[in-house]
Design brief:
Elements: H1 2-18, E1 29-34, H2 40-55, E2 60-65, H3 70-83, E3 87-90, H4 98-107, E4 112-115, E5 126-130, H5 132-144, E6 150-156, H6 162-181, E7 184-191, H7 197-210, E8 217-220, H8 223-235, E9 245-247, H9 251-259, E10 264-267, H10 270-285, E11 293-296, H11 297-301, E12 309-315, E13 318-320, H12 325-330, H13 337-340
Parallel strand pairs: 1-2, 1-3, 3-4, 4-5, 5-12, 6-7, 6-8, 9-10
Antiparallel strand pairs: 10-13, 11-12
Amino acid sequence: MKRVVFMMVVAAIAIAFFAPVVASAAPIKIGLSFAEFEIERWAREKDKMTELAKKAGATEVVYQVANNDANLQNSQIENMVAQGVKAIIIVAVDGEAAATAVDAAAKAGIPCIAYDRLIKSSNLAAYITFDNVEVGRQEALGVLDVVKKGRFALLGGSPTDNNAHLVRRGQMLVLQPLIDKGDIKIVGDQFVDGWSQEKALTIMENILTANQNKVDAVVASNDSTGLGAVEALAAQGLAGKVPVSGQDATAAACAAIAEGKFTVSVFKDINLLSPKAVDVAMKLAQGKSTGLKTRPLAELTGDKAASGDIPCSFLPVVRVTKANLYDVVIKTKFQPYDEVYKNVAEGKRPPKP
């Protein structure tokens, strides 16, 4: 028995001595590149993605903000590649300009994911977004629930953001038949640089002046442009009388919906988007398959000359109005109750969850 035990010990020592050394998993650094933090959602999503990536095993998450400067963003992405990131999630300032940085990163073997805003490069590793055409449809339908016909103003998003054009496509799927029929007349139509609330305010002021305040509805493409329209309408005593649309379900827009000054915001749940983007980034960083289905770049951009296919994920959206605001935004804890109902008299608020 002693001899058997001795031989077992010797064998165990030999196995341990001659066994190959298994290297620990390579560190994974993930990069996050943001166009700006002026729009409420982006800073929240930076925090969410950072948390999720670390939980998924990323050893480090680095982020940079370009302050709506396309050239600066490209330099920041180049810097992330030099820092040794394994994948980069990008909210692009300019979908065309960012293609240069994506192409260079791909050449260096670093996959890039376009986050909610398409980057016009066939070298894009993935495009994670919501159905932006459906966003536009829901904005237009939400306004038409209040006003069926009349004089409409259109406020598009940033002209350098492909999403703005997809949203407009969705809006016009609903509005164009009514325009052709003569039920709707477009009395103002302008895209808003940077999706800026301040610029939307100025544009809406000009539209109201040019039309002697005779505007029956505003189909605005996001909450910032919609809130700019509400400011201009409020100055003329028209806030709450003219329906206004938006998207993102920001705290300010939700508060305006609760007050009755804002009509509809299309809710895009970042609790779905951020995890999907991080999951894809981590898989790409580790050389794994994402399982995403591809879509032609020509279809995504509306440019028939565009070539290549992009792996994509499109998530659903929800139209938020005063009727379902509490269920969609408050019960899910997407926005805080006290912030949303801060300007509503206590007796007219729903119960605090």
